[in-house]
Design a protein that fits this description.
heterodimer, A: 270 residues, mainly alpha, 10 helices, B: 308 residues, alpha/beta, Rossmann fold, Alpha-Beta Plaits, 6-stranded mixed β-sheet, 4-stranded antiparallel β-sheet, 34% helix
């Protein structure tokens, strides 16, 4: 029995690896990746403009790391990772159904769970890479004068980890939404840019119903400044609880998506 | 011979729309043609037996094992779907090798098998072109290649000749026939009788979600022969021609069409009818401009058979 389960697990892992390789390769070649790469370097361009402006300005420049921290929250956490997760997560299932290519995948000796998780993992890897490139470039541009201050690299590492966790979690949620709904993008936009942003301004435990709450709990509370209103009323959870919740939400929605994808029938529209 | 595919009371609805109703069948190795007009339920049947959709009622098994969600059986099946859909940004080579990797072949095994499949469908020279630049015929052949690449025991082809030019059709028919006698089970669907006839003698007739008849192609041919045919004749003197037709016992009905100089004749013996026309034309000096058979299609035969 145990050997049978072990065999099933190893077959599942092999399937996962094969599906991952297939979609990672296809994702790399896609036009969608090129488009999102361009979008993901917008913060880099903004960082560059700020730096050039500082260079030619007579005013005392604001610390690079301070601007970088705010960029992480405003541009990445509240915008870019939501956008990337939304478009990649919902497409895990819907692009196969809308493109009528699902048949090619579901007629292979691969479980539907392996198909879904493998594709989710491939897409998540791609968008994490996109984000890391953007964040790292923004970091280097904003801290050009202070590159030998190695304590700053800890901040970069922390932000990369938090954003990656955000991508993992949001993509899992949007994968579930794409599996269950036809108009998943619309719902995703309302959730990502409505619910996730608005609920953080609610006091008490209500804000714990947003993924962003746990991600922001892993970042330090901002100093009083121009952007502090964005963290207004944040009552952070402990970092351990935040990581646990992020992983729990990821697992929960990915599990639900797998169950649905395995049992739901997808009928192609003529 | 043991049946490879078995269905028991297989039924499928799409909401309130009936897809397939109470189909009980056994399919043995060899080529089996699924024939029926558009919307008859052919694709539904093929999707059910390949485990793409689940039945509402009944069961479908491959080699005695239920197919729905039994992905381990999928290595036995090669499915060429009806829809003209691909991962368009891939090349033909990447498409076939990529899908082969999902059969857990090593990269070198996948490449060997992909090359063999692309050679069979004569696409080796174009393998490095992106699929979106392929012609319709090439895309059909590529779909065929992905279905046969892993050397499956069961090959299911849903309307593989759709949208192909005569040369493309001949190529695909030749390919399908080349699998005859290898002990494989091949199922091909079409709504065109001569296409199926060119590939196999064993057919399943499907109409309005039900299996209408199953057996040898001669059976359907006989049904068609006894089906009264309406033939339209455009000629110089339709009234003279009509007066000669009504004397023959194989002519059931003669009508004048609203079209100019056109006669509609209903006959239950096409062979006798067509041998009579030249004789009459010469004898009575009637110039025949055009002969068409407005109901010479499968739908008309089905409508007749189901008593519409």
């Amino acid at each position: 029995m145990a050997q049978n389960s072990k065999g099933k697990l190893s077959f599942f892992l092999i399937s996962l690896k094969d599906v991952y390789a297939f979609f990672f390769f296809m994702g790399k070649k896609s036009k969608k990746l090129k488009l999102f790469f361009l979008i993901s370097i917008i913060p880099v361009v903004i960082a560059l403009i700020i730096k050039i402006n500082q260079f030619f300005s007579d005013r005392t420049p604001i610390q690079g790391i301070y601007i970088f921290n705010n960029m992480t929250v405003v541009m990445y956490l509240q915008f870019l990772i939501l956008l990337l997760a939304l478009f990649y997560g919902t497409s895990v299932c819907s692009e196969e159904v809308e493109g009528k290519t699902l048949t090619y995948l579901t007629s292979r000796p691969v479980s539907k769970s392996a198909l879904l998780i493998g594709k989710y993992a491939a897409y998540t890897t791609l968008i994490i890479i996109l984000t890391i490139i953007g964040v790292t470039l923004s970091f280097f541009i904003m801290n050009l004068n202070d590159l030998l201050n190695f304590s700053l690299y800890k901040i970069l590492l922390r932000d990369v980890v938090v954003l990656s966790l955000g991508l993992i979690c949001y993509t899992s949620f949007f994968t579930f939404i794409g599996t269950i709904m036809k108009k998943s993008i619309l719902f995703g936009l309302i959730f990502g840019f409505g619910w996730e942003n608005v609920i953080q301004y609610f006091p008490g435990s209500t804000q714990r119903f947003a993924i962003a709450h746990y991600l922001k709990s892993l970042l330090p509370a901002p100093k009083t400044g121009r952007f502090s209103f964005l963290m207004f009323r944040l009552e952070p959870s402990s970092p351990l609880l935040a990581i646990f919740m992020i992983l729990l939400i990821t697992g929960f929605f990915l599990g639900l998506a797998c169950l649905l994808f395995s049992w739901k029938e997808y009928i192609f529209e003529d | 011979m043991n049946p490879v595919i078995e269905t028991q009371h297989l039924s499928k609805w799409y909401g309130n729309v009936l897809g397939l109703s109470d189909v009980t069948l056994e399919i043995e190795p060899g080529i089996t043609g699924i024939l029926g007009p558009n919307g008859a339920g052919k694709s539904t049947f093929l999707k059910l037996i390949t485990g793409q959709i689940k039945p509402n009622i009944g069961t479908c098994s491959i080699k005695g094992k239920k197919i729905w969600n039994n992905f381990s059986l999928f290595s036995l099946i090669g499915f060429c779907p009806e829809q003209d859909a691909f991962f368009d940004e891939l090349t033909g080579w990447q498409f076939v090798t990529g899908l082969l990797r999902l059969h857990h072949y090593s990269p070198s095994e996948a490449e060997t098998k992909a090359r063999k499949a692309l050679e069979i469908v004569e696409l080796v020279e174009d393998k490095d072109r992106v699929i979106k630049s392929y012609s319709r015929g090439m895309r059909q052949r590529l779909k065929f290649a992905q279905a046969i690449a892993h050397d499956p025991e069961i090959i299911v082809l849903d309307e593989p000749l759709n949208g192909l030019d005569p040369l493309g059709r001949r190529k695909i028919i030749r390919l399908i026939k080349s699998y005859k006698g290898e002990g494989r089970t091949i199922m091909v669907s079409s709504h065109v009788l001569p296409e199926i006839e060119a590939m196999t003698k064993r057919i399943i007739l499907i109409h309005q979600g039900k299996i209408f008849a199953q057996g040898d192609i001669h059976y359907i041919r006989d049904l068609i022969e006894t089906h009264p045919h309406i033939i339209s004749i455009k000629c110089s003197d339709p009234r003279l021609l009509a007066s000669n037709f009504i004397q023959e016992d194989f002519i059931l009905n003669v009508k004048f069409s609203s079209a100019e100089n056109t006669l509609l004749v209903e006959t239950n013996n096409r062979d006798k009818f067509f041998s009579l026309i030249p004789a009459l034309s010469v004898k009575k000096n009637i110039e025949v401009e055009e002969i068409t058979s407005p109901d010479d299609n499968l739908q008309a035969v089905f409508d007749y058979l189901v008593g519409k």
